[in-house]
Amino acid sequence: MTGEGLTTRGRRALLGALAAAPLLRPVGGEAAPPQPAESEARWRDPARDREIPVLLRVPAGQGPFPTVLVSHGLGGSRHGLAYLGGALARAGFLAIHLQHPGSDDSLWRHGGDRMAMAAAAFDVNVALDRLRDVRFALDNLPPQADPRRLAIAGHSFGAWTVQAMLGQRLPGGDRGLDLPDPRLKAGIALSPIPAQGLPPRLAYAGFAAPMLHVTGSNDDGWIEGVRAAQRREPFEAARNPGVLAVLNGAVHASFADEPGAGARWSDPTYHTRTAGLAMAFLRATLLGDATAARFLREGAPDLLHPHDIWETRSI
């Protein structure tokens, strides 16, 4: 390792900071930090006569806190991605999990079928509702949120939500939403969604904020037909600062953490790596942590596994 690289002690120090999440703390490590406070609510958007279920994970300590909006995938809920929101909250980030009616678990909990899921996935109005949910949340942040340090994270349809909010161009335009939203300073796309209907270079030309893209070598989509290799496109065809991680062996369900959907949707195998990358990325981008940025540039040593793929650009 060069003199400018992280020393072994430096890597351990950073991983120690990331280990604010119990799932990243070594066995026999220090006592767990105070647990975040959790609360549920329903935020009402009167302009749309729409209720948005939310789950807040509030760090211990004095706010305001850097804040991450969390968007679930198709058929998910505000309780999904708990490993990510919990890890972030324990590391000092306020996590606001949004539930999007029309593309949430109501699609299958009451006898819905695969056709209902597919219909929601391809319904333009359902997609736009997600973006308006995020816009409403940004306009109505709780007092614990620091409006100067905001990011967004999501899985699958939630990743599409992240990409659109950060400037991915939509066929037919953004319907007056004026995207990207400049309040969002960073984004995390788990199982990114490749653009449709536009050439890649044009579709991602609006990206400016740094983004972390995490996918798996077996991350095939079962509704939209996206193949695992295609999920690299939003990183590879864009020019904004970014990080790409392809976790060896991970499938589409590996990142969701939706226990109600079955065991494979809550398999924790890849949660440690995903949460650790997210925390390092947000420390680097939202907090200006130079050590975290160097950790990312050097390939997340001691966190990624030997056959994982890792690329960075301008981080």
TrEMBL record:
The lineage of its organism: Bacteria, Pseudomonadati, Pseudomonadota, Alphaproteobacteria, Acetobacterales. This is Acetylhydrolase. Coiled coil: none annotated. The keyword Lipid metabolism applies. It comes from Roseomonas gilardii. PANTHER family: PLATELET-ACTIVATING FACTOR ACETYLHYDROLASE. GO terms for molecular function: 1-alkyl-2-acetylglycerophosphocholine esterase activity. Keywords: Hydrolase, Lipid degradation, Lipid metabolism. One of its GO terms (biological process) is lipid catabolic process. It comes from the Bacteria. Residues 26-46 are annotated as: Disordered.
